[in-house]
Every structure is written in structure tokens, then in C-alpha cells.
Design a protein that fits this description.
Layout (H helix, E strand, L loop, with lengths): L4 E6 L5 H16 L3 E6 L4 H8 L4 E3 L11 H10 L4 E5 L1 H11 L5 E6 L10 H14 L5 E4 L2 H9 L8 E3 L15 H7 L7 E6 L8 H14 L3 E6 L5 H10 L6 E5 L4 H7 L2 E4 L8 H8 L4 E4 L4 H4 L7 E3 L4 H13 L1 H18 L2 H17 L1
Parallel strand pairs: 1-2, 1-4, 2-3, 4-5, 5-6, 6-7, 8-9, 8-11, 9-10, 11-12, 12-13
Helix pairs in contact: 1-15, 3-4, 4-5, 7-10, 8-13, 11-14, 13-14
Length: about 375
């Protein structure tokens, strides 16, 4: 088929799962022969990694979401280079990218990774940013939700009617999702004693991840299985409050905080069990990373998580907010190592069959062509 000309617009401050998903999409589209360029509004890990992958990228620096001076040069670029598709990711990119592309012939696609109102701890941002995003949503020719659960929530919130949505799950490239070092060396670096069980949550420590629940879970599990260590892997506004709470409750004997890490697959490799206590999710890449390494997972039954974790088949699901129920699922894995191994193996096969990178890019490419044909 004829190659497409695609402009990918993203804020630039993305890290971890969202950054990897975005760059994998761009890398694969470029590898398929499409003319692709990235626009971001600030320098960061994403722009540095894009350059390593030799993906064309341009920075248009912005001081705030209302820094409209970037719109004319962005619109000029879209027209001059004849981009057929402008694909936006994130509220800032959606707002600016749609305004810039709307008067042009380019078709506008937007991927939504999470429920907008739950992305912000700051009350003003929570009240202000989602309406800003919704204001320009009618300009988008197609909206992509990363899970069926997220799409349902967005439709119910009247972000847009279901007819304007497509669902494209996040993905994992199993051929490239490999740790950089042997498991034993990584565990030594994390201070995990030989014979100990390591249980980790890789997530930004924000309200929507409900990380304080894991403190309660850790206490319940440790009371019955003293050899377990719990790792909080990530940073965020709750990092210091969590440290303080763990120390105050005398949990810091078996709870570790690593802060932000740039080697999530190494951390996954070092863990025995991966957990996620979220109260809402689009589709968490950390669970796909865990499944890619055959790790058993325990997660809450929210958002797109049940589309990743088949309860009792590829992992365990628990009701959101119930520490006792969540802890009981972890204890099941500890008490039955054969079951834990089986769940890990089933999870890897499920990820391979349903969340492959090539499948995600195929679907995205198909949406581009459908929208262009409309």
C-alpha cells in the first residue's frame, strides 16, 4: 500500500509506559515505510529516546497550555509538508494539535490512554483541563481508546458518541521486552536476600493508583508470610507520604521504595509477583511487561485491566479498595508455586496472542486509512 505522511504530536514529558507505547508505534510505522515526524513541546526522555531511534523530531517550546504562538508554525508545517494524518496524544497535544490541524486537509486522530478527570491531583487542573480537551474534541475525526473499559467510561461521560471511537489495545514487543542483566544480579542490586519473595508495583505514585492500599496489603501478607518484600517502583506526589506512613506503621522492615527507574523490565525480572492496586486504568502496560516475562500478577478489577488479566487464567483480580481480598490473592500465589508458574506461563501466551506490537500497529494503520477514505 501507498505510504502515509503522519505527524505525531505529544507533550514530551511522558515517561515509562506511555512513552514506550508512543515510541514503539512511531518506530514501527517508520519501519513500514511511512513518512513520520514527531512534534513535542518540551525536551525530555521522550525526545532523547526518539533521537536514539532516529525518528525525526522537532521541539516547539511552550510555556503553558495557552501558549498559542506555537500554533502558526505547527499549522504551517502541516500544510508545507502535506501531512495526511495528525495523531495527537495527551491533553496539551490534543488542544494545540487539533487547533493547528483543523483548517488544513489533514485528518485528526487522538489516542486516549486514561480517563481525563482522573489524571490530575491538582483541583484546578482537574476542573480546567478536561473541559479544554473536550472543547476541541469535535475536531478529531476518530478517537482511539486503549481499552473497551475506557471507551465505555468516555462514552458515558459524553466525551463523544461511541460511533466516533475505535479501541486499540496497548501492546508489548515480546522480542524486545528483555531485561538488560541476569535476574540474580538485578536482585542483588535491589538488596533482595536469597530465598526471599519480591512483590512489586511499578506505577507512578498518584491517587488513581491507590498506593496506600498496598501498605495495608503488605502488612496482611507479611503477617502470614514473613519472607515477602514489597517494592514500590516509581515516583510521584505520594512517594514521601508513603515512605513516612511505612515508617510510622513499622512496615519499612519489608517495604522498599526505589523511586523512578529507567529499567522497568529489569525490575520486572527481579520480582516474583507483580501487583497493581489502581482504582481506575486505561490499559496498564506494566501488566503486559510482567506477563511478557511470565510473572504472575494480581490487580484490581477496574477499567481495562480485565481485558489484560483473565481472573484465574492469566493472573488474579481483586475488588478495588479491598486490602484483605487483594492480600488473599497474593497469598494464594505464595502457597501454590506451581499455580503461580502456570499463571505466569498462561499470561505470557495471552500477551503474545492478544497484545502484540504488530497487531497494535496494524489496527492503527487501518484506522488511518479508514479515516482518509471517509
Amino acid at each position: 500500500m501507498k505510504p502515509l505522511s503522519i505527524l505525531q504530536v505529544i507533550g514530551g514529558g511522558e515517561i515509562a509506559g506511555s512513552k514506550h507505547q508512543f515510541l514503539e508505534l512511531c518506530r514501527e510505522l517508520q519501519g513500514r515505510g511511512h513518512h513520520l515526524t514527531i512534534i513535542t513541546f518540551l525536551e525530555g526522555e521522550l525526545s532523547a529516546d526518539a533521537r536514539k531511534l532516529v525518528i525525526p523530531i522537532q521541539i516547539l517550546p511552550m510555556q503553558s497550555i495557552f501558549d498559542f504562538h506555537v500554533i502558526p508554525p505547527l499549522r504551517k508545517k502541516i500544510k508545507r509538508e502535506g501531512f495526511q494524518i495528525v495523531h495527537t496524544h495527551g491533553i496539551r497535544a490534543n488542544f494545540i494539535g487539533r487547533l493547528a490541524a483543523r483548517p488544513t486537509t489533514a485528518k485528526i486522530i487522538t489516542t486516549i490512554y486514561s480517563f481525563p478527570k482522573e489524571d490530575y491531583r491538582n483541583i484546578l487542573k482537574r476542573a480546567f483541563y478536561p473541559p479544554i480537551d473536550k472543547f476541541t474534541t469535535p475536531a478529531a475525526h476518530r478517537l482511539i481508546a486503549v481499552s473497551e473499559g475506557l471507551q465505555k467510561k468516555l462514552v458515558e461521560a459524553k466525551v463523544a458518541p461511541q460511533s466516533r471511537f475505535s479501541v486499540v489495545h496497548c501492546s508489548i514487543d515480546l522480542d524486545r521486552a528483555l531485561p538488560s542483566k541476569p535476574r540474580g544480579i538485578i536482585r542483588q542490586g535491589l538488596g533482595i536476600p536469597e530465598g526471599s519473595v519480591a512483590c512489586g508495583m511499578l506505577a507512578r505514585l498518584v491517587a488513581v493508583k491507590n498506593p496506600f492500599l498496598l501498605l495495608d496489603v503488605a502488612r496482611i501478607v507479611h503477617d502470614q508470610w514473613p519472607g515477602v518484600l514489597f517494592f514500590f517502583v516509581g515516583d510521584g506526589p505520594y512517594l514521601e507520604p508513603l515512605r513516612h506512613a511505612a515508617k510510622e506503621r513499622d512496615l519499612d522492615r519489608f517495604i522498599r521504595f526505589t523511586g523512578y527507574r529507567t529499567d522497568p523490565l529489569d525490575i520486572v525480572e527481579a520480582m516474583d509477583i507483580i501487583v497493581l492496586t489502581s482504582i481506575s486504568e486505561g490499559l496498564p502496560v506494566t501488566l503486559l511487561e510482567a506477563m511478557s516475562r511470565s510473572k504472575p500478577v494480581v490487580a484490581t478489577r477496574v477499567g481495562g485491566i480485565p481485558e489484560v488479566v483473565q481472573d484465574g487464567q492469566t493472573g488474579f483480580l481483586s475488588a478495588s479498595g479491598d486490602a484483605q481480598a487483594f492480600a488473599s490473592k497474593i497469598l494464594k500465589l505464595l502457597q501454590d508455586p506451581a499455580k503461580a508458574r502456570w499463571l505466569g506461563e498462561q499470561g505470557r501466551q495471552w500477551a503474545l496472542d492478544h497484545f502484540s506490537l504488530s497487531g497494535m500497529v496494524d489496527q492503527t494503520e487501518q484506522i488511518y486509512r479508514e479515516v482518509l477514505a471517509e
